[in-house]
Design goal:
The protein is mainly beta and 315 residues long. The protein is built from three helices and 23 strands. It has a single domain (3-314), classed as Beta-galactosidase, Chain A, domain 5.
């Protein structure tokens, strides 16, 4: 076993997490399955961890240690249901997905502020198995003229999943966009973010909601928030690492910030959103640099997800 100190700070933000099993060569299995009523789903497994991909709703729905409850939030009320791109109500299935940033531009392009653009969020995608990799390919969004391609890889030896998200501009006028990856997690003990001081973030973070998140604490470049069951909150930073911390398991997401690049949302490259009851979830969001895309152009970002266990002394 090996331990990993996540952060050190002055207010009980030092967590010691470790993998339960030492890294080992595993047999990577990629196979079709039915998941919560969705046929033609895809399971990736290395014998220790598994990822579940559901092309019918265009999401990676779960990433967890085998035989254990997963950390991703799933809206079980929508099990097996198909998304509706014409609905005025958001079909919030949960899991991991991608949207175009910045959200503030949606009404000028879509032309609606909400729900999200249809091909990014509410249309089935093509799910292909290419060797040991899963590829999700969306339709071309009718408003942005962009299709998304997501490559999902599971490490054969460690509980590590990598998702490479590519925006491919196919048609329409040039659009300045950024890759935005949103992962919904169950109610946490807390959420941590690496939040460095920068020109855009002289205090290390910026509130993106009227009020601050519950028990917000900032120390030594580390931001910590808790979910409030009565009110939603959002906060952004210039970081490239986020942690969801549960009772026994944590998930680390890494998507390094690009230096000297233009970012949406007043310069944010990482954001945390907390949702009130009854949907008890939080969102860990990674944003990439903005780039003007014309037909034929592509924009790519990679996120790395690592499952971690708390050490016995911190259970």
């Amino acid at each position: 076993m090996r331990s990993q100190s996540l952060f050190s700070g002055g207010f009980v933000l030092s967590l010691v997490l470790l993998f339960q099993n030492a890294p080992r060569a595993g047999e990577l299995v990629v196979e079709r399955t039915t998941y919560h009523g969705w046929t033609n789903s895809i399971r990736l497994s290395n014998g220790e961890a598994e990822a579940i991909v559901v092309p019918a709703i265009g999401r990676v729905m779960q990433f967890h240690f085998i035989g254990e409850e997963g950390p991703f939030w799933e809206n079980r009320a929508l099990d097996g249901k198909a998304p509706d791109p014409k609905s005025a109500e958001w079909g919030n299935f949960g899991g991991d997905k991608t949207w175009p940033a910045p959200q503030a531009e949606w009404p000028q392009v879509a032309p609606r502020a909400w729900p999200p653009p249809p091909a990014f969020d509410s249309m089935p995608v093509e799910g292909k198995i290419e060797g040991k990799t899963v590829v999700l390919l969306s339709p071309v969004d009718p408003f942005f003229g962009i299709r998304t391609r997501r490559r999902i890889d599971l490490n054969a030896a460690d509980p590590v999943m990598t998702i490479t998200t590519t925006f491919e501009k196919v048609s329409g006028p040039p659009r300045k966009v950024g890759v935005w990856v949103i992962t919904q997690f169950k109610h946490p003990e807390n959420v941590l973010a690496g939040a460095p001081i920068s020109a855009e973030f002289p205090n290390g973070y910026k509130l993106q909601s009227k009020n601050a998140p519950r028990n917000l604490q900032y120390d030594a470049g580390v931001l910590r928030v808790e979910r409030d069951n009565k009110e939603s909150h959002k906060v952004g930073s210039a970081g490239g690492t986020l942690f969801w911390v549960g009772q026994r398991v944590a998930v680390r997401i890494d998507s390094p910030r690009v230096a000297d690049a233009e970012y949406p949302d007043e310069g944010a490259s990482a954001e945390i959103y907390t949702n009130p009851d009854p949907a008890a979830y939080v969102e860990l969001e990674m944003l990439g640099p903005l780039q003007e895309l014309k037909p034929g152009d592509k924009l790519e970002r990679t996120s790395r997800y690592t499952l971690l266990r708390k050490s016995d002394e911190n259970q």
